[in-house]
Specification:
It contains 16 helices and 16 strands. It is α+β, with helices and mostly antiparallel strands. The protein has two domains: 2-152 and 206-298, 2-Layer Sandwich (BirA Bifunctional Protein, domain 2); 303-397, Anticodon-binding domain (Rossmann fold), CATH 3.40.50. The radius of gyration is 26 Å and the shape is elongated.
């Protein structure tokens, strides 16, 4: 997964940035938001006892964007060279109830573009997510929405607040608390999904500039042949998020099916003390996209291309040199235990997702041949050593 992400970053001219695992708690309170579940319920705080007060309180990072923005500002790039293209890879920590696709330590691949207010930057991010999915043979459903800006969003927020108050008795207890503090988060609720289908939609409140921006984004995504759907429930609950918001959802991996999420945050750099520089980005959950890749059998690229099933001591000695020769030619090879029977070796080959098994014992050594089994096609044939490499390479290309 990480290799695919790094290859993508290189193709899109992104530069790697590494930020600390620990930041001041205030950074997340000001960026992620004091009313967010991440800050209210999921933060791992780092304590030095009673001395940890105020600005000294530290937290293990639950997400990547705030640390990247802080580093960008502290390096002075927001004023000296604001247009930057960054990516990061690494672990994040949140206190949650573990389940399939949701872990207390998880990994993210993230992208942050600074200094670009234009719709093309947002469209390019969605193209990246789509291309990452395609490279891993995933079926992703891209969902997109616009949240408006500081001029038009207040009217949407007011309409949502009025709607929430009129349906207060029907809302869940969490939404009661969210309503007055951050009404946009009503649309995030997993309990009141059916009810909020009738809530006001942000697209109905966009100003002319925001509407043009959104229309340009979807036109560019269309031109790039990226499939998407408009989701009026897709929101970001913080004031500095503006205009474009998007998510990528994978099918067949359970309830935790959002593998990527992103959006424009033109107010964040300034909110954290920097210059008024626009920004946009996304993060991909590595574990979740790995689950989706397994579901679509796309991990063949990470499995051994070839396993060597040597039957007997003489064959095992021959297998060591053969494995080295195949690896030097760019193949991924697993040398199986010569102390197991053929059935056990083939079970191992199937378990690791190998494409080919090269099987040989005393009889094959005497005849100077190998049994080459194509595990994908369920076929087997005899090949000489001179044919072995070309047979494997030709088969992989097919």
């Amino acid at each position: 997964m990480e290799k695919a992400a790094r290859d993508l970053a290189w193709r899109y001219a992104l530069n790697e940035i590494r930020v600390p695992m620990m930041e001041r708690l205030g950074l997340y309170e000001r960026s992620t938001g004091e009313t967010s579940d991440v800050v209210e319920k999921q933060m791992y705080l780092v304590s030095r006892g009673e001395e940890s007060q105020g600005e000294d309180k530290m937290a293990l990072r639950p997400e990547g964007t705030p640390g990247v923005v802080r580093a960008y500002i502290e390096s002075g790039l927001d004023r000296s060279d604001p247009e930057q293209r960054f990516f990061y890879l690494g672990p994040m920590l949140r206190y949650e109830r573990p389940q399939k696709g949701r872990y207390r330590q998880f990994h993210q691949f993230g992208v942050e573009l600074f200094g670009r207010p234009d719709a093309a930057a947002d469209a390019e991010l969605m193209m990246m997510v789509d291309e990452l999915g395609r490279s891993l043979k995933l079926e992703l459903e891209l969902q997109v929405n616009s949240l408006g800006c500081t001029r038009c969003r207040p009217a949407f927020r007011a309409a949502l607040l009025d709607w929430g108050r009129s349906h207060l008795s029907e809302l869940c207890q969490d939404c009661h608390q969210r309503l007055e503090r951050n009404p946009l988060r009503l649309l995030d609720c997993k309990i009141d999904v059916g009810l909020t289908e009738g809530a006001p939609k942000s697209l109905d409140y966009l100003c002319d500039d925001c509407r043009r921006h959104f229309e340009t984004v979807v036109q560019m995504v269309d031109r790039a042949e990226v499939t998407y759907a408009i989701n009026a429930r897709l929101v970001r609950g913080l004031d500095y998020y503006t205009r474009t918001a998007f998510e990528a959802v994978a099918t067949g991996i359970g309830a935790q099916n959002a593998v990527a999420a992103g959006g424009r945050y033109d107010g964040l750099v300034e909110a954290l003390g920097g210059a008024p520089v626009p920004g946009t980005g996304f993060a991909v959950g590595i574990e979740r996209i790995a689950l989706a890749a397994r579901q679509s059998l796309a991990l063949e690229q990470g499995a051994p291309n070839v396993v060597l099933a040597a039957l007997g001591q003489a064959a095992a000695l021959r297998a060591v040199g053969l494995a080295r020769s195949l690896r030097e030619r760019g193949l991924r090879v697993e040398l199986l235990s010569p102390e197991r029977g053929l059935k056990a070796l083939l079970r191992r080959a199937d378990r690791v997702g190998a494409r080919y098994a090269v099987i040989f014992g005393d009889n094959e050594l005497q005849r100077g041949i190998f049994q080459l089994r194509d595990l994908k096609a369920s076929s087997q044939r005899e090949v000489g050593e001179s044919e072995l490499l070309s047979a494997i390479v030709d088969g992989r290309e097919n």
